[in-house]
């Protein structure tokens, strides 16, 4: 099974080029600060590590949105980064009231209670083999407010498809970057604390792959990108609506597209040039 794990930290000032990691080839992205609670353009992931990074409290940058939990995966939070001197390790939320340093630096469980939004993973747990690695994705730094019709429908299908496709045809490292596109103007907020994205997007880079691809996957390597609707009422300029879809999923469509098309939409919305992958996913020499 494909093993993809998050490993990205935001830069302290933005917008600016973000060197995500050093590996067989560096992967680059651009971070842009959005209104509180702020969003980075995307969260990057690759095989090999289950560390999810966020900025330190000294950095005047993103405040991540929300957490999620399943009965077998206890919710985890980067509470150890909420104040000076913290050691950076994850710590679980406890029954007592949440430390104000945490509340002021990120979203908390209470933000999502009685809201109409699910806690949508950026780095999906299904991309990981072990319980420890899957548990590491259930953090307050790895989710955004996502409509249930998206999270349980077309977006879930996309995550499964990416997982199966890379497992079957990617021969080496696979790099995945997942992020959001905010509203142009004032969008919805959860309890005036957590900003809701209008779209979610994901892209992968697989420099080394099996070239004996079926015809329908020829355009999916070495790069692939997709944008998913998170608002039924958004225009159809970026992602058209399939009027024949089941009612609970209608308006939450996902559109596959070339990487350059995704970068065009990101540039338009963030008003800055964004290169998701270093040299468009070129192999290292």
Strand-helix topology:
Elements: E1 5-6, E2 16-21, E3 27-31, E4 42-46, E5 76-77, E6 91-92, H1 100-103, H2 109-112, E7 117-121, H3 131-135, E8 143-147, H4 148-151, H5 154-169, E9 175-181, E10 189-190, E11 194-195, E12 199-205, E13 223-229, E14 254-257, H6 259-270
Antiparallel strand pairs: 1-4, 2-3, 4-9, 5-6, 7-8, 9-12, 10-11, 12-13, 13-14
CATH topology: Extracellular Endonuclease, Chain A
Total number of domains: 1
Count the beta strands: 14
The chain-level structural class is alpha+beta
Poorly predicted sequence stretches spanning 5 or more consecutive residues: 1-40, 47-74
Q: Which term fits the overall shape?
A: globular
The main β sheet shows up as: 6 strands, antiparallel
Explain what this protein looks like in three dimensions.
The protein has one domain: Extracellular Endonuclease, Chain A (3-Layer(aba) Sandwich). The protein has 285 residues and is of the alpha+beta class. The longest helix is centred in the middle third of the chain and has 16 residues, at 154-169. The strands form five sheets. Strands 1-4-9-12-13-14 form a six-stranded antiparallel sheet, sandwiched between helices. Strands 2-3 form a two-stranded antiparallel ribbon. The chain has six helices and 14 strands. The chain is globular, with a radius of gyration of 18 Å.
